[in-house]
Design brief:
By secondary structure, the protein is mainly α. The protein has 2 helices and 2 strands, in the order αββα.
Length: 89
């Protein structure tokens, strides 16, 4: 919500106070909220059933609730994943 209200300038000054309000759209987690993260598949299923938080390769801890296909992959998770030795999925 944004309000475009400016305080009236006094006759003694040409300074106007910006009193517009802007919502805080961040989730308090910084850049990590803008990415899809790598997590063990079994942990994702468990989290979906129990609501328990998961830990991504980059260290982010959260309860997944969004479609990861809508976000780019976390660069830190991707780097860690690519450095892991290949194994059976």
């Amino acid at each position: 919500m944004s309000t475009d209200v400016l305080a009236r300038a006094s006759t003694e000054s040409d300074v106007r106070e910006d009193t517009r309000t802007r919502p805080d759209l961040s989730h308090g987690d910084g850049d990590q909220e803008r990415f899809a993260h790598y997590v063990d598949k079994d942990k994702i299923v468990d989290s979906a059933v129990t609501g328990t938080p998961v830990v991504a390769l980059c260290g982010k801890v959260w309860v997944p609730s969004r479609d990861p296909k809508r976000f780019p992959v976390c660069p830190e998770c991707k780097e860690i994943y690519e450095s892991l030795p290949e194994g059976d999925d």
